Amino acid sequence: MSAVDIPILSGAALALLFAAFTVLYDCHVSIQDILKRVPLPIYRERPAIAVALACGLVAAVAFFFTNGRGDSLVDSVLSLKQTNPYLRGLSVGLMVLVLIRSKLSNFEGAAIGGEWAYNKGREWVVESLNTKWWAFKTAYCNRNLPSALASFPDPAFETQVLAGIQAIIQVKPQLYQVFVQSQITNVVKSRPSIPFDPASVQWEIYYRTLMNLALDYAGDAVFSGWKNFS
Amino acid sequence: MSSFSVVDLLQSSGPIALNELVMRLSEGPQEAVAAIKILQSEGMVSISGPLAKKFLPLKSVQEPTAGAAASEAFTDDEIMRASDTVIAPSRASLGRMFSR
């Protein structure tokens, strides 16, 4: 390999890496908008890694169409007129998402091309997160529900869990707090009217719902340090 | 009515058991199930589990309005015990969120 190629290949590698990083960050932010709190580390999700690498490859290929002189649309948009291949790689990596998601990828408001593919990728990531999150919550509840039911009445599970959720969401935006508080209010209204009985299906459903509500909006931090919880 | 929609809740929580979903909403069980049926007919949610078939419109009934097609009735008790019937946001609903 000639010495001349090394900066160019390094630039392409930088473009790939920075594009992948930018995509992971963008996925995290946009998914957080939907899920309110992203329940699992997104950078460990295979679909997220695949989407990030795909966009990274687009950046690496796009890099070879740039020279920093701004004599093409791709070059002007992505390279920011950087002739230094390392800086150009950085620039292309950070800017490629703009190209993928630009109005060039829209037709009469409908996403086509890059934007369409990018949205499909994000749907795939959310589906994967949802599937894993469901499995996690189910396993967590099955593991800890007996301890929660056994904890009644001292200390009362529901008092502690509701206090835990409130403490964690109070630093969140107002809309988030209202959204979660509405659900808490609705769930508490469904509190069984029969005396507490750990063998009762109604109480089990109520405790499970509280536990899942806590996991969904405050995470398992609500239960950290709880006796007999794992 | 809830200050938030069923779709908002599903998109934020991911898949959720039918009885838990109903408990988190301010509507009663029948109203919540009616809302879920409409969402299912619009392709916004997917339903799995033992009660999934009861959400499907009855084949013999021809109902022109989307989501209002008659389906089997649920009892409140049946809904509140439906821990193994899971309601999840569909890809179409996620796609709609991303394309906003």
List unreliable stretches of 5+ residues of chain A: none
* Topology order of chain A in helix (H) and strand (E) letters: HHHHEEHHHH
DSSP E strands of chain B, number: 3
Low-confidence segments of chain B: none
Counted by DSSP, the helix tally of chain A is: 8
In what range is the share of β-strand residues of chain B?
5-15%
Mean pLDDT across all amino acids of chain B? 83
The order of strands across the largest sheet of chain A is: 1-2
First and last CA, distance of chain A: 54 Å
So what's the oligomer here?
Answer: heterodimer
Greatest interface by residues involved? A-B, 36 and 29 residues
H-E order of chain B: HEHHEHEH
Helical content of chain B, roughly? 40-55%
Distance between the termini of chain B: 24 Å
Q: What would the average pLDDT of chain A be, to the nearest integer?
A: 87
> How many individual helices of chain B?
5
What gross morphology of chain B would you assign? globular
* Number of E strands of chain A: 2
Q: What would you note in describing this structure?
A:
The complex is a heterodimer of chains A (230) and B (100). With 230 residues, chain A is mainly alpha-helical. Chain A has eight helices and two strands. Chain A has helices at residues 5-35, 46-63, 73-79, 85-100, 113-150, 157-169, 174-189, 201-218; strands at residues 106-107, 110-111. In chain A, strand 1 (106-107) and strand 2 (110-111) form a beta hairpin. The mean pLDDT of chain A is 87. Chain B contains five helices and three strands, in the order H-E-H-H-E-H-E-H. Chain B has a three-stranded antiparallel β-sheet. The longest helix of chain B is centred in the middle third of the chain and has 13 residues, at 29-41. Chain B starts with 5 loop residues before the first helix and ends with a helix. The chains are: A mainly alpha (230), B mainly alpha (100). The interface between A and B is medium-sized, with 36 and 29 residues.
